[in-house]
Amino acid sequence: MQHLIRVAERMLERLRRHSKDDTLIRDANHLTKLIIEESNRLSATIPQKPPPSRAVTSLDRSEIAEIFQLTADKAMEFEFEPSSGEQIFLPPHLESVLSDYKLAMGRTTKTEASSRSYIDAIILLTLAQMKKEVASDPRSSISSVNSVRSIHIQHEIQVSMPWEFRDGLYVVGGRVDWSVWYENPDCLETNCILVEAKRLWEGTMAIQQCLAYMAMVYWTRKRAGLSDSSVWGIATDSVFWYFIHIRSDGTCAVGAYSFRNDPIKVVGMISKLYRRVARVAELPTKNKRWTATSGLSFASYQTASEEAPVEDTN
Known about the structure:
It is built from 8 helices and 9 strands. It has 314 residues and is of the alpha/beta class. The chain is globular and about 60 Å long. The two termini are 36 Å apart.
């Protein structure tokens, strides 16, 4: 049944890209939903052995886009450029905090853990700065201020989802280093941005790993029929920041900045993504709830099920 769902989804995606027959696309979309509903109904009535687990880190990075049916594309104009309304000032204490970190660490071996301390400072102080600027701006509406205040950052989230591979159905997953959410972190639909870290000079290795987690969120939003199923992510080693965008049509692009050379652009892009979360937070509840039948699950890393795939942190 899962294979039939994948075939129906691929056919629907091709029709959306290449056909102008709205009636045909609507009928194909309806048929896909019926197949998914019937699959869920059968799954609920027939006892099934839980599928085996597969960690994201065990996947061939060169095949992740193909596995999750994504297509690499070039960046669109201004896609990875913060607008004047999205740009914020550098947090006033950020430079001194990072300088103190560097002083304290000295010649410590550059590990993923040491990179995380820098990343923590950058993403947390940027969020704090944005909240302050929006709250102090007389042009900000009450709803905008409340939406920005509702944004928070959560560390080490276990993400998993059933997925059909060439050799069968698996529960694929692992640990996301940070997720950006609004309102309630336990609600799947509120986790809007995923961030993955690596040790210094290994930032590019995090791109495909982050892309896999993003794809799980993307397909959940897609199957829920949301008009905007796009997802954003960040892969970084604290120096090089790779901003990843899966668009609603399944194409994906990456934009990169160096924090050493252009810290304002890095902070501006982080602010851009935070503001996107704030806009989603302002939507009516019915427009942002996901389907509960996707199989996607988030859990704090400490309380994640023992059956969930455990991420190799090396």
